[in-house]
Design brief:
The chain has about 180 residues and is of the alpha+beta class. It has 7 helices and 6 strands; from the N terminus they run ββααααβααβββα. The chain folds into 2 domains: about 80 residues, no CATH class; about 80 residues, Glutaredoxin (3-Layer(aba) Sandwich). The relative contact order is 0.10. The N terminus is likely disordered.
């Protein structure tokens, strides 16, 4: 016979969500606030797997990237298989898989941007930042990536830096942006 104090009682109608007094999952990477937020988000969904993207988002916002250790912690919290979490994360480019710089520069190289000089823009950024695509500057300020399409075709060439679009780019505009971000630190 088991002790009632250690048993987890499901919340009525939401059997996948632990009751408020349930033992907490021990984590090494995710903090208590993130765990609580994930559990709160899970309560919104009648099907556990529906919480995959919200759980990944919470972890990403805390850590800044996702990897196998984080998937394992999320699996323990959500009781969703680690593989399913990893599969979802690898599908979305918004979840980087390794640490990156403070400013994620994503240069669009779809046809409109390519025809308007995206290749030249990319080479210029590599030269200016002294890194190649996929790398991060030594000061951890910039990571450079290519994006398939950023949906700014009418203002090509363009790039997205973190969550902001920068359009109709020239070397002068890029210099001003990079210099401004370097001053901010």
């Amino acid at each position: 016979m088991s002790d009632n104090k250690t048993q987890t009682q499901p919340i009525p109608g939401l059997p996948h969500v632990k009751s408020p007094g349930a033992p907490q999952v021990k984590t090494r990477i995710l903090n208590a606030e993130s765990v609580a937020e994930i559990q709160k988000k899970m309560a919104r969904y009648p099907v556990r797997k529906s919480a995959v993207l919200p759980a990944l988002t919470v972890a990403y916002r805390q850590v800044g990237y996702l990897n196998d250790e984080i998937y394992a912690e999320l699996a323990a919290i959500t009781e969703i298989p680690k593989l399913q979490l990893a599969e979802a994360a690898t599908f979305y480019t918004m979840f980087p898989k390794k640490p990156r710089g403070k400013h994620l520069i994503m240069v669009c190289d779809n046809i409109s941007c390519a025809l308007c000089g995206a290749d030249n823009l990319l080479r210029y950024l590599e030269q200016k930042l002294e890194i190649k695509v996929g790398e991060t500057t030594k000061d951890n300020l910039f990571t450079l990536q290519i994006a398939e399409c950023l949906a700014g075709c009418s203002a090509a060439p363009m790039m997205q830096v973190n969550h902001e679009y920068h359009e109709n780019l020239t070397r002068e505009k890029v210099d001003a942006l990079i210099d401004g971000w370097r001053k901010e630190g």
